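We treat protein structure as text, and this decision shapes the records that our systems exchange. The tokens are whole numbers drawn from a learned vocabulary of local backbone shapes. One such record is reproduced below, unchanged from the form in which we store it:
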Amino acid sequence: MVLESEPAPAPDPVRDKAVPHPQRLPRPARAPGRESFCRSLTAIAEHGNPQDELTALLRTTLLAFASETPDNQEAAQHIAVLSTAPPQPAMRLCLSRSGLSLGQVLLSADGCPVPGSVLEEFPDLNQDEWNAVMRVTGLVLLAFETEPANAAGRLPHST
């Protein structure tokens, strides 16, 4: 029985089926950072701005979303929005030094063994789930690229 002057006991927390993560991942401090980062990714697919402007916007919004930790700052310096060569120009999220598409790099890792450091954090993760993580993440990144006219409707195939 609870007296009116006493606060009601807190309800028991509801557990979901998600596996808890043992350490905290960097999270955005506020929703506007997430929204700005998503808009900068969408701007790549819209192909309306010069690549230097898109790169600067992407780097700035990435850090606003994920925080300006040294590892995030380092990662931001290694990414760029680059245009592919004519005759089928397209804008892509790439590694700044090599020009390799981030999505294509991830998709090429599909089927690689789960790294030991990942298994240490997620011991129940199996190879099929790891393959799904790599594939879906690669496809998400490709979704933000501008498609060349001759590639419309085509997605990379599984090997």
User: Anything to note?
Assistant: The mean pLDDT is 81. Residues 127-143 form the longest helix (17 residues). The first strand starts at residue 79 and ends at 83.
